Amino acid sequence: MRFSLLGIFIGLWFISSVVAAQNVIRFATEASYPPFESIENDQFVGFDIDLARALCQQMNSHCVFSHQPFDSLLASIEFGRYDAAISAIDITPEREQQVMFTHSYLMNGAVFVAKSGRFNSYQQLHQRVIAVQNGSSEQQYLLDYFVSHGTIAIPYASYQLALSDLQGGKVDSVLVDQAVAADWLHRHPGFSVVDSEITSKDYFGRGFGIAVNKENQQLADRFNQALDAIKKNGIYQQIYSHYFADEKKVYEN
User: Fold this and answer.
1) Could you tell me the pTM of the whole model?
2) Phi and psi (nearest 5°) for 172?
3) DSSP string covering 177-242
4) 176 with 34: CB under 8 angstroms?
5) CA distance 69 to 21
6) For residue 2, what pLDDT is reported?
7) Ramachandran region, residue 186 (left: φ > 0; alpha: ψ -120 to 50; beta: rest)
8) Structural contact between residues 198 and 110, judged by C-beta atoms closer than 8 angstroms
9) Which pairs count as long-range contacts for 6-11, CB under 8 Å and 24+ apart, including other chains?
10) One fold for both 5-107+205-244 and 110-198?
11) Can you give the residue ranges of every domain in the chain?
């Protein structure tokens, strides 16, 4: 049987293209959430972004990122639009019904942020207007524990808009991840945390995970193996220290 050189070339090109496609991991993220993810000079930056790139390098793969509204991230994974989602996503039983999560890569809690000196306790936030990101664990926490006390929970597409409205006096407080609050408060004097950090296991206690499709156990395993590897070789700690060197309440799992 005779083969043409052109046919062989096309066959090899097709095979290499398939292999290359398999080595690209498409991440969805909501890139308005510093220090975890944001866009600067048309580039994705932040802790989650650097972590994802380190994992991809460990896996001999290439990362590409797409910006999506937070409340659409898990649906994008469930229906196969992207391979994974990384966006400070709390691992919760409800979300595990929709997607599969990797091992936790960062522990977290939530805090109420308000104008300094205005509130001293959670109880003082009853019957107030609290801003929160739509689709977040913080939103569910407000609905479950504060709305019954007369609190009005206002959903926002992003925390940047919510915190902007807090500055403008349009809301009384914002419930947000502790690390995000710390980053924002560092740049906005006159605001502070109300009471203490909330670490309820039902909402925040299991930490952040990378979401993948429930049928893609292989990718979840690859992420977990890569995460273990970069924790052992020190790369994880380098990334962590770059973003959280001054923080005391955000811990590696």
Assistant:
1) 0.82
2) -85, -30
3) EHHHHHHHHHT-TTEEEEEEEE--TTTTTT-B--EE-TT-HHHHHHHHHHHHHHHHSSHHHHHHHH
4) no
5) 25
6) 41
7) alpha
8) yes
9) none
10) yes
11) 5-107+205-244, 110-198
Q: What is the pLDDT of residue 22?
A: 57
CATH C-level class of 110-198: alpha beta
DSSP, collapsed to helix, strand or coil, labels residue 92 as: coil
Other beta carbons less than 10 A from residue 134's beta carbon: 16
User: Is the peptide bond between 155 and the residue preceding it cis, with omega within 30 degrees of 0?
Assistant: no
Question: CA dihedral in degrees (48, 49, 54, 58; nearest 10)?
Answer: 90
Q: What would the DSSP string read from start to end of 119-177?
A: --SGGGGTTSEEEEETTSHHHHHHHHHTGGGT-EEEEES-HHHHHHHHHTTSSSEEEEE
**What is the sign, positive or negative, of the torsion defined by CA atoms of 128, 126, 130, 180?**
positive
Fold held by 5-107+205-244: D-Maltodextrin-Binding Protein; domain 2 (3.40.190)
* Block residue for tokens 């509130």: 119
Distance CA 212, CA 218 (A): 10
Per-residue pLDDT tens digits of the chain, which is 253 residues long: 443 444 434 443 433 333 344 589 999 999 999 999 999 999 999 999 999 999 999 999 999 999 999 999 999 999 999 999 999 999 999 999 999 999 999 998 999 999 999 999 999 999 999 999 999 999 999 999 999 999 999 999 999 999 999 999 999 999 999 999 999 999 999 999 999 999 888 888 689 999 999 999 999 999 999 999 999 999 999 999 999 865 443 433 3
Pick from 158, 161, 179: nearest CA to 170? 161
